[in-house]
Write a structure and sequence with these properties.
About 30% of the residues lie in helices and about 25% in strands. It is of the alpha+beta class. Strands 1-2-3-5-6 form a five-stranded mixed beta sheet. The chain has five helices and nine strands.
């Protein structure tokens, strides 16, 4: 394993380090969720190309539909904590704001087309709920930005990615 060699640690030592450090575990779970989402996207009959975008400030995936249309997909992990009414929730904001622009931490609606919420923390299964970005709740006082905490309730969320693709245009 290349990382074990680079870090001069065994695979078991690396896994134990991840297990002991909460923030490191969160980061790894984010990467694991992205891997599971990529596999799900690659199985879709509507998607021709799945491109993982590993660049700061960009969504996680760009997908190209069989029609040639491109859509952007952002992957976030649901919180293990629910709202008092029982709904699951997901945090949809960046880690930090850029200097001089406190609103930059909050996503703009046009930054991605579909939000994929990984439900592992809630269900202990690597499954997802999907929603077109225009249906996400706006940030109070800044309607062009997305509120950081979003409820995951069906409807409007769905576990059917192919179905949500059709809803993207309807919601724009």
């Amino acid at each position: 394993m290349l990382l074990a060699k680079e870090f001069d640690l065994t695979s078991a030592q690396i896994m134990e380090m991840i297990n002991r450090r909460a923030r490191l575990g969160v980061a790894v779970r984010g990467g694991v969720a992205e891997q599971h989402l990529q596999r799900l996207l690659e199985r879709s009959r509507l998607i021709q190309i799945v491109a993982f975008l590993d660049r700061d400030g960009e969504p996680d995936f760009e997908i190209t539909l069989a029609s040639g249309r491109k859509l952007l997909v952002e992957c976030k992990n649901a919180s293990p904590h629910r709202y008092s009414n029982g709904d699951a929730k997901v945090e949809v904001q960046k880690t930090r704001a850029s200097r001089g622009d406190p609103l930059s931490r909050y996503y703009r609606y046009e930054q991605f087309d579909i939000l994929a919420a990984c439900m592992w923390a809630v269900t202990k299964r690597w499954e997802f709920r999907f929603l077109p970005s225009p249906l996400l709740e706006p940030l109070s006082g800044a309607p062009t930005r997305i509120r950081p905490m979003q409820p995951i309730a069906e409807p409007p969320w769905t576990n059917d990615f192919d179905a949500v693709i059709g809803r993207v245009d309807e919601e724009r």
